Structure to design on (607 residues):
């Protein structure tokens, strides 16, 4: 049942075996998966140790304030070890399926780094250039990072969206979004 | 006052023009979000949480209920037209629905999904109305130890049964519990697991976690492996009035009811979730099909769309039963709606029906109203939702990131960096 419409697009049927990605991940060592399991186990150990420093009030009963953290720490440690062993035996995590996700390609770290950079920049810039402009920058930057075509549209769209949100949520609904020194002198901000 | 009178009072509240508008807003956003790839109802509610702090609790919860129900309707559209289910609960719909669309029967598939969703959600909401107060009355008699035990059962079953790997589920559960431990202890005032960082003294807000996980995390993940090229859509025929033939109706109505009967009870138990219900319903329809219809399954059987879609929506209503009466969230969206309640100082649980009865019944009444709105919205407007699908992906995810930043920032309007 393949129709010409879906044949060339790379849209895959759910449930269909993903041979390409399986081959890819089968060959190399899944460092990320090991790291994740180790990190979880590490947090578990931290919780177990830090729980010892919780002061127990004199009024406490049989189950003191340390019991639950002990339970959580033990759970994390055991689950982390279990996942680690699972990965050793070849039980890898399954990539989440989604409409826009192409699970057969390798991770594009450059795009991720660009997005993280724009997001962090946005957080720091709000104070200096105000929310609307920082938001427009985030939107245009993210659209550029993700490969938007017709980039000269990105900036007008970003500005329009940012100011619409600013007036809708900031002015009408009363969220405190700072206009910033660049716009503060204008009477309607 | 008995339950019926209280429900009527709830309708009186929910039918006020202001609240009708909020319900409408909720279902429109919910459907749009269900149709849009990459955004689920959990993410939308998380993104809108900080923004609704300025609304009164009833209005906010009506909006969230609308989003919740709307998202369930919208999810089927992408499954049928794009063969790409946005969430696990609409995988089954894609199986038969997309085959139907390829044969040019996409309109019938969409119609049976929408009407089936309406039937199921209406019946299940009646179920919620009847079951919830009884369960709440029973739950009042439970003490803290019973609750602790109940939560352990609920969370371990959810952790173990969601997804395919038990160890990974337990690991996620542990990570979540650890994040909950961070903060200042109420009785003695000592700080726990904050590492001496002052911003962590108030604990980690669940909205931040939700926005970080569902919005930022999801966007980064999609960005790392974004599909290139245009989205391939199967066009829908015009004229929604003759979408379903007499035969389609005859084949659909039993699956709708069976799907509802399967979905609602499964939704009410912890770890049920909507996806289990859809698979069960599909299996049931396949088994019950008459000789001549049996081999149509896998090639575009309308029963395979009608049943699971009904089960999906009935389960969504079922999930609200433990949420409202026991305060136990069994899906991601329910967990975020729970935190919405808590942000207004309202604790869902057995006492909710006594202390906040006006609010709860207005919420339940708005579910009935939202359902009718969704049917009216979805049948004629499928063409518009299909257009929504064609938003260029870079702009879509840029917008999600922007809203995520807005949500995190507007929580307390300060930037906390450690």
């Amino acid at each position: 049942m393949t129709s010409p419409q879906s044949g060339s697009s790379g849209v895959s049927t759910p449930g269909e075996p993903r041979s390409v990605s399986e081959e890819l991940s089968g060959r190399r060592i899944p460092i990320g998966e090991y790291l994740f399991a180790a990190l979880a186990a590490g947090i578990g150990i931290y919780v177990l140790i830090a729980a010892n420093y919780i002061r127990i009030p004199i009024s406490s009963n049989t189950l003191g304030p340390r019991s639950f953290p002990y339970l959580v720490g033990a759970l994390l440690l055991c689950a982390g070890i279990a996942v680690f062993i699972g990965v050793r035996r070849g039980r890898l995590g399954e990539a989440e399926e989604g409409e826009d996700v192409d699970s057969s390609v390798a991770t594009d770290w450059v795009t991720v780094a660009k997005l993280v950079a724009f997001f962090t920049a946005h957080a720091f810039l709000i104070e200096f250039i105000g929310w609307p402009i920082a938001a427009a920058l985030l939107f245009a930057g993210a659209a550029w990072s993700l490969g938007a075509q017709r980039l000269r549209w990105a900036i007008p769209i970003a500005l329009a969206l940012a100011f619409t949100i600013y007036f809708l949520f900031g002015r009408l609904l009363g969220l405190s979004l700072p206009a910033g020194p660049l716009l503060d002198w204008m009477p309607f901000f | 006052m008995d339950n019926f009178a209280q429900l009527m009072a709830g309708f009186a509240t929910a039918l006020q023009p202001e609240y009708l508008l909020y319900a409408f807003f909720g279902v429109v956003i919910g459907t749009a979000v269900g149709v849009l790839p990459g955004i689920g109802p959990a993410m939308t509610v998380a993104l809108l949480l900080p923004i609704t702090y300025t609304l009164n609790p009833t209005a906010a919860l009506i909006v969230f209920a609308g989003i919740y129900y709307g998202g369930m309707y919208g999810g089927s559209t992408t499954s049928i037209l794009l063969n790409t289910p946005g969430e696990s609960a609409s995988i089954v719909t894609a199986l038969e629905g997309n085959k139907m669309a390829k044969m040019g029967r996409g309109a019938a598939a969409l119609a049976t999904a929408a009407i089936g969703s309406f039937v199921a959600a209406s019946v299940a909401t009646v179920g919620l109305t009847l079951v919830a107060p009884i369960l709440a009355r029973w739950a009042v008699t439970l003490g803290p130890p019973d609750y602790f035990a109940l939560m352990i059962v609920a969370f371990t079953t959810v952790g173990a049964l969601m997804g395919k790997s038990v160890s990974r589920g337990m690991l996620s559960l542990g990570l979540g519990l650890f994040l909950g431990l961070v903060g200042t202890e109420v009785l003695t005032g000592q700080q726990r697991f904050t590492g001496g960082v002052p911003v962590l003294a108030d604990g980690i807000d669940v909205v931040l976690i939700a926005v970080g996980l569902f919005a930022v995390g999801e966007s980064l993940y999609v960005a790392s492996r974004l599909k290139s090229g245009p989205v391939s859509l199967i066009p829908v025929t015009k004229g929604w009035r003759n979408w379903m033939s007499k035969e389609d109706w005859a084949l659909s109505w039993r699956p709708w009811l069976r799907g509802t009967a399967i979905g609602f009870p499964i939704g009410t138990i912890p770890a049920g979730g909507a996806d289990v219900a859809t698979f069960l319903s599909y299996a049931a329809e396949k088994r019950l099909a008459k000789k001549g219809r049996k081999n149509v399954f896998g090639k575009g059987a309308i029963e395979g769309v009608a049943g699971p879609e009904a089960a999906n929506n009935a389960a969504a209503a079922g999930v609200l039963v433990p949420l409202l009466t026991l305060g136990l969230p069994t899906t991601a969206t329910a967990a975020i709606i729970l935190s919405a309640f808590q942000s207004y100082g309202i604790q869902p649980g057995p006492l909710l029906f006594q202390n906040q009865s006006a609010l709860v019944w207005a919420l339940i009444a708005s579910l009935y109203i939202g359902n009718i709105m969704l049917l009216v919205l979805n049948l004629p407007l499928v063409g518009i939702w299909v257009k929504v699908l064609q938003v260029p992906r870079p702009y879509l995810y840029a917008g999600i990131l922007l809203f995520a930043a807005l949500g995190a920032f507007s929580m307390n309007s300060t930037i906390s960096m450690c």
